[in-house]
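Readers outside the structure-tokenisation community will struggle with the description of the input data as it stands. For illustration, here is how one protein appears when written out as sequence plus structure tokens:
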Amino acid sequence: MGQFLPCFKAYDVRGKVPAELNEDVAYAIGRAYADETGAKRVCVGYDIRLSGPSLARALSQALNDAGVDVVDLGMVGTEMVYFATGHYGFDGGVMITASHNPPEYNGMKMVRAESRPISGDSGLLEIERRAFEKRWERSGKGSTTQLDAYPDFVRHLLKFGDPASMEPLRILASAGNGAAGVAMNALARHLPLRIEPHLFEPDGSFPNGVPNPILEESRQGVERLMREAHGRGEPFDFGVAWDGDYDRCFFFDETGAFIEGYYIVGLLAQALLAESPDHTIIYDPRLIWNTLDVVQRMGGRAVICKSGHAFIKEKMRAENATYGGEMSAHHYFRDNWFCDSGMIPLMLIAQLVSKSGQSLGTLVGEMIERFPCSGEINSHVADVQGTLRKVEERYSDGKIDKIDGLSVEYDRWRFNLRGSNTEPVIRLNVETRGDRDLLREKTEEVLALVRS
């Protein structure tokens, strides 16, 4: 991607403002989107980034000039554009966000009708080409109207949980000065949960750092507050934190310990299969044994899929899957137009903790003991493909799978190694069957080979 315009990536648009993405580029993308999709009515939203409103205006003007009616959602999270596109029957939606990138970045995530993703060869390459060439096929005079989608959005979210079955759990919720605080305030009024807000004020200058809780430095504040509360004998039941546009959410147990997204996939599969045991669950190849174990025990059907939102959503539609989970903390739901949500997992986890009578730490602790994992470890390498070949040759006696990068499986341990789409980085995940010593040994062994 980025053949014509550097802000076009594999799955979306993302670049520095104004060098790579500005009002002129946004206008060109709007005209190209209209020509490529043929859409007549499109919703547009933006997150808390300071450049969001001006990029949204330029995009909306372009859509209007192509004869497209724009529904302006204002400041929202990515999943609200997915929701609005599907719920109101719009022909498409564009969310202006750079997710967890630094404040000088912005970008766009685009969908068609029914919130079907536009990425790579499903239209994004064509939009890039059209935006670069600037030969517009459509023109007209579209209108722009404002819509407050929050009330309908909250009603939609409440379908995924039963507030009556939730205990008044005490939860530390951190929006990291992103967009999640606004949505959480709207949702919390309808739940019995006692939400302790942390950094709920939207601020696109990110005074407390970019919200990306997958990074240790980004979640330290939440972990500290939870540890302190636990030490005082006033523990939270669990913690939750979101990235800037809250399409990903991250959880902490009652002691403040961060829970790898891998185990949350298992918990959400468990929560949904408890309601409908014969349903299909989609999972990605990076870490798999715990998910397979949960789905098998709960009577479900597990289907593997290459990681990445476009692949997961396509596979979920093909299999009519109830849920799809990635260890990167993207959680997808069939009844949410097969799209990812950062709010639905909170309700499902709260419901699971309430109904089980067990702490979140206990629920995931059993999974971690049975299938400990390394967490994702990044290594900068000169040659990604050459490194993958070298590692495959060394472990050629294992069971090899190449659905996504290189997966190698033995009886007691397995690993997945995959290259980044955007940088010379390789990502390693290792897991074992209940053996922490073997986990340490094999993680060090594969890393040494990768970095040699």
Remarks:
- The mean pLDDT is 96.
